[in-house]
Specification:
The chain has helices at about 20-35, 45-50, 55-60, 70-80, 95-100, 120-135, 150-160, 175-185, 200-205, 210-215, 220-225, 230-255, and strands at about 5-10, 15, 35-40, 65-70, 110-115, 140, 165-170, 190-195. With about 260 residues, the chain is of the alpha/beta class. Strands 4-3-8-7-5-6 form a 6-stranded parallel beta sheet, sandwiched between helices. Strands 1-2 form a two-stranded antiparallel sheet. Helix 8 links the parallel strand 7 and strand 8 (about 190-195). Helix 2 crosses helix 3, helix 2 (about 45-50) crosses helix 12 and helix 11 (about 220-225) crosses helix 12.
Length: about 260
Protein backbone atom coordinates (compact mmCIF):
# COMPACT_ATOMS: atom_id res chain seq x y z
CA UNK A 1 0.00 0.00 0.00
CA UNK A 2 1.47 3.32 -1.10
CA UNK A 3 0.80 6.61 0.67
CA UNK A 4 1.32 10.00 -0.90
CA UNK A 5 4.10 12.12 0.57
CA UNK A 6 3.48 15.84 0.89
CA UNK A 7 6.12 18.54 1.17
CA UNK A 8 6.34 20.74 4.26
CA UNK A 9 7.39 24.26 3.20
CA UNK A 10 10.30 26.03 4.88
CA UNK A 11 11.33 22.86 6.77
CA UNK A 12 12.10 21.19 3.43
CA UNK A 13 10.92 17.72 4.48
CA UNK A 14 8.21 15.34 3.32
CA UNK A 15 5.50 13.73 5.43
CA UNK A 16 2.46 11.47 4.98
CA UNK A 17 -0.41 13.27 6.72
CA UNK A 18 -3.10 10.84 7.88
CA UNK A 19 -5.78 10.75 10.56
CA UNK A 20 -6.00 8.05 13.22
CA UNK A 21 -8.64 6.12 11.28
CA UNK A 22 -6.62 6.37 8.07
CA UNK A 23 -3.52 5.12 9.87
CA UNK A 24 -5.30 2.11 11.37
CA UNK A 25 -6.54 1.23 7.86
CA UNK A 26 -2.96 1.46 6.57
CA UNK A 27 -1.68 -0.67 9.45
CA UNK A 28 -4.40 -3.25 8.74
CA UNK A 29 -3.18 -3.48 5.16
CA UNK A 30 0.44 -3.79 6.29
CA UNK A 31 -0.41 -6.55 8.78
CA UNK A 32 -2.32 -8.43 6.09
CA UNK A 33 0.55 -8.30 3.61
CA UNK A 34 3.13 -9.43 6.16
CA UNK A 35 6.08 -7.43 4.83
CA UNK A 36 8.59 -5.26 6.67
CA UNK A 37 7.32 -1.70 7.03
CA UNK A 38 8.46 1.30 9.07
CA UNK A 39 6.44 4.07 10.69
CA UNK A 40 8.18 7.20 12.00
CA UNK A 41 7.14 10.75 12.89
CA UNK A 42 8.32 14.29 12.21
CA UNK A 43 8.80 16.97 14.85
CA UNK A 44 11.40 19.73 15.00
CA UNK A 45 13.94 17.35 16.54
CA UNK A 46 13.62 14.85 13.69
CA UNK A 47 13.76 17.66 11.13
CA UNK A 48 17.00 18.92 12.70
CA UNK A 49 18.49 15.43 12.61
CA UNK A 50 17.37 14.93 9.02
CA UNK A 51 19.19 18.07 7.89
CA UNK A 52 22.35 17.28 9.86
CA UNK A 53 22.70 13.48 9.53
CA UNK A 54 22.69 11.84 6.07
CA UNK A 55 22.04 8.42 7.61
CA UNK A 56 18.97 9.71 9.43
CA UNK A 57 17.73 11.38 6.25
CA UNK A 58 18.15 8.15 4.29
CA UNK A 59 16.18 6.19 6.87
CA UNK A 60 13.31 8.68 6.77
CA UNK A 61 13.38 8.80 2.98
CA UNK A 62 12.90 5.03 2.87
CA UNK A 63 10.28 4.81 5.62
CA UNK A 64 6.74 3.88 4.61
CA UNK A 65 4.85 6.35 6.82
CA UNK A 66 6.19 9.65 8.19
CA UNK A 67 3.54 10.96 10.54
CA UNK A 68 3.22 14.63 11.44
CA UNK A 69 3.99 14.69 15.15
CA UNK A 70 5.08 18.21 16.13
CA UNK A 71 2.70 21.18 16.00
CA UNK A 72 5.14 23.45 14.08
CA UNK A 73 5.48 20.80 11.37
CA UNK A 74 1.69 20.54 11.17
CA UNK A 75 1.18 24.31 10.93
CA UNK A 76 3.75 24.66 8.16
CA UNK A 77 2.23 21.73 6.26
CA UNK A 78 -1.18 23.39 6.57
CA UNK A 79 0.19 26.40 4.67
CA UNK A 80 0.30 24.24 1.53
CA UNK A 81 -3.50 24.29 1.35
CA UNK A 82 -3.57 20.51 1.04
CA UNK A 83 -5.92 20.36 4.02
CA UNK A 84 -8.61 22.09 1.95
CA UNK A 85 -9.35 19.04 -0.22
CA UNK A 86 -12.40 17.88 1.73
CA UNK A 87 -10.64 16.26 4.64
CA UNK A 88 -11.13 17.09 8.30
CA UNK A 89 -9.63 19.76 10.57
CA UNK A 90 -5.89 20.33 10.44
CA UNK A 91 -5.33 19.10 14.01
CA UNK A 92 -6.71 15.68 13.05
CA UNK A 93 -3.48 15.13 11.09
CA UNK A 94 -1.19 15.65 14.04
CA UNK A 95 -0.41 12.15 15.24
CA UNK A 96 1.93 11.61 18.15
CA UNK A 97 2.37 7.99 19.17
CA UNK A 98 -0.05 8.35 22.08
CA UNK A 99 -2.73 9.54 19.63
CA UNK A 100 -2.77 6.35 17.57
CA UNK A 101 -1.55 3.58 19.90
CA UNK A 102 -4.90 3.59 21.80
CA UNK A 103 -6.60 2.85 18.44
CA UNK A 104 -4.59 -0.31 17.69
CA UNK A 105 -7.67 -2.36 18.58
CA UNK A 106 -9.07 -1.23 15.22
CA UNK A 107 -6.19 -2.80 13.26
CA UNK A 108 -7.59 -5.89 11.56
CA UNK A 109 -5.75 -9.15 12.10
CA UNK A 110 -3.37 -7.78 14.73
CA UNK A 111 -2.54 -10.75 16.98
CA UNK A 112 1.13 -10.38 17.94
CA UNK A 113 2.73 -7.18 19.31
CA UNK A 114 6.21 -6.57 20.72
CA UNK A 115 7.14 -3.58 22.89
CA UNK A 116 10.82 -2.66 23.20
CA UNK A 117 12.05 0.23 25.33
CA UNK A 118 11.79 2.10 28.64
CA UNK A 119 12.53 0.58 32.03
CA UNK A 120 11.17 -2.73 33.26
CA UNK A 121 8.26 -1.19 35.18
CA UNK A 122 7.14 1.09 32.35
CA UNK A 123 7.57 -1.65 29.75
CA UNK A 124 5.45 -4.07 31.77
CA UNK A 125 2.83 -1.38 32.28
CA UNK A 126 2.66 -0.65 28.56
CA UNK A 127 2.37 -4.36 27.77
CA UNK A 128 -0.54 -4.67 30.19
CA UNK A 129 -2.25 -1.61 28.69
CA UNK A 130 -1.85 -2.91 25.16
CA UNK A 131 -3.45 -6.20 26.16
CA UNK A 132 -6.48 -4.13 27.12
CA UNK A 133 -6.36 -2.09 23.93
CA UNK A 134 -6.05 -5.15 21.67
CA UNK A 135 -8.00 -7.92 23.42
CA UNK A 136 -6.90 -11.41 22.44
CA UNK A 137 -3.55 -10.28 21.05
CA UNK A 138 -0.30 -11.66 22.39
CA UNK A 139 1.78 -8.73 23.68
CA UNK A 140 5.38 -9.25 24.79
CA UNK A 141 7.83 -6.71 26.14
CA UNK A 142 11.56 -6.15 26.44
CA UNK A 143 12.96 -3.19 28.44
CA UNK A 144 15.42 -0.89 26.69
CA UNK A 145 17.48 0.48 29.57
CA UNK A 146 21.26 0.57 29.18
CA UNK A 147 21.03 -0.16 25.47
CA UNK A 148 24.25 -1.49 23.96
CA UNK A 149 25.40 -3.93 21.27
CA UNK A 150 24.72 -6.97 23.46
CA UNK A 151 21.19 -5.83 24.27
CA UNK A 152 20.63 -5.05 20.59
CA UNK A 153 21.79 -8.55 19.59
CA UNK A 154 19.46 -10.03 22.21
CA UNK A 155 16.57 -7.93 20.88
CA UNK A 156 17.14 -9.19 17.34
CA UNK A 157 17.17 -12.79 18.58
CA UNK A 158 14.08 -12.18 20.73
CA UNK A 159 12.10 -10.68 17.85
CA UNK A 160 13.20 -13.47 15.51
CA UNK A 161 11.76 -16.00 17.93
CA UNK A 162 8.53 -14.07 18.54
CA UNK A 163 7.83 -13.06 14.93
CA UNK A 164 5.45 -10.23 15.93
CA UNK A 165 3.28 -8.43 13.41
CA UNK A 166 3.83 -5.00 14.95
CA UNK A 167 6.76 -3.68 17.00
CA UNK A 168 6.70 -0.52 19.11
CA UNK A 169 10.30 0.61 19.51
CA UNK A 170 10.72 3.35 22.11
CA UNK A 171 14.42 4.05 22.63
CA UNK A 172 14.32 7.78 22.02
CA UNK A 173 15.39 9.67 18.93
CA UNK A 174 17.75 9.06 17.16
CA UNK A 175 18.75 5.75 18.81
CA UNK A 176 15.56 3.96 17.80
CA UNK A 177 15.95 5.05 14.17
CA UNK A 178 19.64 4.09 14.17
CA UNK A 179 18.79 0.63 15.49
CA UNK A 180 16.21 0.09 12.77
CA UNK A 181 18.53 1.42 10.07
CA UNK A 182 21.31 -1.03 10.91
CA UNK A 183 19.19 -4.05 11.91
CA UNK A 184 16.10 -3.99 9.72
CA UNK A 185 17.42 -6.53 7.22
CA UNK A 186 18.15 -8.96 10.10
CA UNK A 187 14.71 -8.62 11.69
CA UNK A 188 11.61 -10.70 10.90
CA UNK A 189 8.90 -9.08 8.73
CA UNK A 190 6.73 -6.76 10.82
CA UNK A 191 5.53 -3.18 11.06
CA UNK A 192 8.24 -1.36 13.03
CA UNK A 193 7.07 1.86 14.69
CA UNK A 194 9.46 4.36 16.29
CA UNK A 195 7.49 5.68 19.26
CA UNK A 196 9.97 7.62 21.43
CA UNK A 197 8.73 8.08 24.99
CA UNK A 198 5.25 6.72 24.32
CA UNK A 199 5.93 3.49 26.21
CA UNK A 200 6.27 5.39 29.50
CA UNK A 201 3.25 7.51 28.62
CA UNK A 202 1.02 4.56 27.73
CA UNK A 203 2.12 2.86 30.96
CA UNK A 204 1.18 5.96 32.97
CA UNK A 205 4.74 6.42 34.27
CA UNK A 206 5.07 9.72 32.43
CA UNK A 207 2.06 12.01 32.71
CA UNK A 208 0.45 13.00 29.44
CA UNK A 209 -0.49 16.58 28.72
CA UNK A 210 -4.27 17.20 28.66
CA UNK A 211 -5.50 16.81 25.09
CA UNK A 212 -6.66 20.43 24.90
CA UNK A 213 -3.05 21.50 25.46
CA UNK A 214 -1.96 19.20 22.64
CA UNK A 215 -4.55 20.60 20.29
CA UNK A 216 -3.24 24.10 21.00
CA UNK A 217 0.28 22.96 20.13
CA UNK A 218 1.54 23.64 23.66
CA UNK A 219 2.76 20.18 24.70
CA UNK A 220 6.31 21.55 24.68
CA UNK A 221 5.36 23.84 27.58
CA UNK A 222 3.88 20.91 29.50
CA UNK A 223 7.01 18.80 29.00
CA UNK A 224 9.22 21.77 29.89
CA UNK A 225 7.35 22.19 33.16
CA UNK A 226 7.66 18.49 34.06
CA UNK A 227 11.18 17.81 32.76
CA UNK A 228 13.00 21.15 32.43
CA UNK A 229 16.52 19.72 32.23
CA UNK A 230 15.58 17.16 29.59
CA UNK A 231 13.49 19.49 27.43
CA UNK A 232 15.09 22.95 27.75
CA UNK A 233 17.60 22.51 24.93
CA UNK A 234 14.94 21.11 22.59
CA UNK A 235 12.71 24.11 23.25
CA UNK A 236 15.18 27.00 23.42
CA UNK A 237 18.34 25.81 21.66
CA UNK A 238 17.55 23.34 18.92
CA UNK A 239 15.20 25.61 16.90
CA UNK A 240 18.16 27.97 16.35
CA UNK A 241 20.32 25.07 15.21
CA UNK A 242 17.60 24.05 12.78
CA UNK A 243 17.24 27.61 11.49
CA UNK A 244 20.96 27.72 10.79
CA UNK A 245 20.83 24.40 8.94
CA UNK A 246 17.88 25.54 6.83
CA UNK A 247 19.51 28.87 5.94
CA UNK A 248 22.76 27.13 5.01
CA UNK A 249 20.82 24.65 2.87
CA UNK A 250 18.91 27.45 1.13
CA UNK A 251 22.02 29.54 0.50
CA UNK A 252 23.80 26.49 -0.84
CA UNK A 253 21.15 26.11 -3.52
CA UNK A 254 21.55 29.64 -4.81
CA UNK A 255 23.62 30.02 -8.00
Amino acid sequence: MTLERQHVPFLDVDATPVTVSELTAVLSAYVAEGRTRTVVGHNLHSVTLLHSDPGFRSFYDHSDVVLIDGAPVLWLWAKTGEEDDGRGPVMDYRLGSTDWIPALGNVAGLKRIAVIGAGAVANAGAVAKLREIVPGARVDGMPGEDWNTDVEDAAVEWLTGLRPQLVLLGLGMPLQEQVLARRLTMLPPAVYCAVGGAIEQIAGVQKLAPRWIGRLGLEWAWRLMLHPQRVAYRVFGEPWVLLGLLLRRRLGRQP
